[in-house]
Amino acid sequence: MNAPSIGAKLALAWERLLESVRTRAYFAEPKMVIMGAMGVFGTPLYYFVWTWWYPQPFESLGLRLVFSAIALPLLFVRRWPEPVRKWLPLYWYLAVIVDLPFFFAYMMLMNGLNTVWLMSHLAAVFIVLLMFDLKAAIISIASGTVLAIIAFMLTPHVEFHAEQAQLMLPVWAFVLASGGIFNVTRSIEYQSRIDGLTATAATIAHELRTPLASIRLAAMGSLKHVDAMVDGYQKARAAGLDVQPVHRSAISAIGSGSRIIQTEVNHAFVTIEMLLAAARPAESHAADILQASVIVGEAVDRYPYASPAEREKVGVSIEGDFRFRGSSPLLLNVLFNLLKNAIHHTTRFGRGDIVITVRTLADHGLVVVRDTGPGIPPALLPSIFDRFVTGAERPETGLGIGLAFCRDAIKRMGGSIDCRSELEKYTEFTIALPVLDAEAATREP
Questions:
Q1: DSSP state, 370?
Q2: Most exposed of 33, 59, 79, 140 (fewest Cβ within 10 Å)?
């Protein structure tokens, strides 16, 4: 497998940072109004505290009003228009950097590293550690502090006592370490909950296999004998035998009901396979050399469509085939999930086609699942891959695990998945996988 370039590694690191910011912003949105109120009203209020009650060497009401203005949009976050909401996670992240590490570090420096502002800066650092994951928090604190130092050096300021800063280094280190430990502990707790829920879902899915298989066999048996039963009934009626009359719609319902049961059971089996695949550890999925067009063709052929009309919606376009190393069951379940979502929403929308395209780039192959259905609202787009997050318009069927499973499965194969969408026009999921060169593709895994 080709080693990813430095640029690709940086791009992946940047994408993970943005993903973290989007996730935190999604869960923090209910609290943004409170944070906005604290920034808008608390920042200028403390001007009077540090001017009249406990005077500080440097205070500026104008400067505080500027930082209050930065927090002001957060007060009205629920009224942001849809075209602007896609920028909310980035604005939230920048507002936190500016109003916490930058502002408090700048005021600490301007006040000569006195005790009040040293403590205030430590409090700001700890708050950031609680708000973001460890990597994003460290980047926020470091960037805000560096910008504060630059701003301090560019403005008239009091004499700077480096010795006092050196004395505080152990305290800052302790705050960062303790905040980091708390952050990691919270992540472990969250992951433990995820693992427990996944294991429970897998257990339930496994136990449902047997009764669902029995239901499917019963439905198949009904379909197999329904024609003979109808033929016998019609002959008995024609012969004038004393047979209880059965309405034609009831006869039709026997066959259609059995077909519906069989279709729904097949859909349930797809979900069960997805749950079981998600619960298995990454190392248990054997890595084989696979061909993209073969996997896509198998997924399209094996998917349990509810009707011939559903099957006709789905098309395949091979613009450039490629080989990659990965797990066939994992990728099949990813494509099943994306097909399920696309079919569900195009059907609900009343129109739309689905096309799965395979193409190649320089060092990556792409599998693109695109539907011309209702699209995804911009406010929901940043969080669609988050686990156990659901919504009325979320492009899943309510469990909140489908797209999270897709993301995790593709990452296990060294790839990535992202989504683009425009309301009432299209939704497009792009799976990128590292391509094997000709020599690597001929070697055994």
A1: E
A2: 79
